[in-house]
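re the bet — no i am not wrong, look at it urself. input seq straight from the record:
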Amino acid sequence: MRVSLKDVAAHAGVSIKTVSNVVNNYEHVTPAMRERVQESIDALGYRPNLTARHLRKGRTGIIALALPELGNPYFAELAAAVIDAASAHDYIVLLDHTGGLREQEVLVSQGFRARVIDGLILSPIELETEDLRDRAESVPLVLLGERDYALPYDHIAIDNVAAARAAVRHLVGLGRREVAFIGARRGRSEPAQLRIRGWREELSAAGLPADDGLVAATDGWGHMDGAAAMARILESGRRPDAVFAYNDPMAIGAMRVLHERGLRVPEDIAVVGFDDVVEGRFGAVTLTSVSPDKGAIGRLAVESVLARLGGDTPPEPRRVWADYRLVERESTLGRAAPDGAQKG
């Protein structure tokens, strides 16, 4: 049997309005009254009807999150962060998978689910500026990632150039002089372009050559792509003493090839990844990685959507830089590495 506000009010000996004020966390309720009502809520097992609450405000209580690759550990962890942040505001999240395809990203961004969602958080790969310029849909849109559209939408990202430079600086500081980059995309990919730019800038700052012979392009983001890229560099006759990979799955794929070729990590070749996914913390050699603050990215994205729903005058569009850190582990420091050593 469902417990109603009326039941709680009768149990607490107060008005329904008072119970409603407590449930909705209104500030003017006295601590004593709040405690009295809360005791009745706990005793009766009352649960608010969130659907009805949202509908009274003309909303559905649903935020859509559109990601390019649900199988990628980074996006899976990011989705969890968004879901947790939305839950704190009594929202649920509807997941969409675009496959990183422009036509799917256009379909999502133009609001094909607009009737059932209050806002959209989109992480685009191939979407172009012109695809968004004439967007007629009024559902709030928040963009994630590094594509710069110079359009009036909130945008949450990390500084990929600075993060890549931090990764390469770590390797150079360990005495590595030939640093390969795997994951330069054959097609357009702004994150890959920014990370390779950081690789070049930091090597140049250290007085080292950014050797194009140590750059391996790939079509995808996965373990196989990283393994194939590492194999191509080795088969070309080159033997770098360090590798900076576009992401963690590629770094893990590269380390597998190095192991198969009898090369030791990090003694022969040090490896740094990007995204700090859980998988990289539990391999035979734990992975040094750039760690974006996924929790902050999820929270900022949800808060941006809700800010645009909350008032008559939405805030000005903003670009927000989330934090990151370099987490140093065995793939660069060896077995003596402290567990989860970190640098800002």
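see?? The mean pLDDT is 88. told u. also The first helix runs from residue 5 to 12. so pay up
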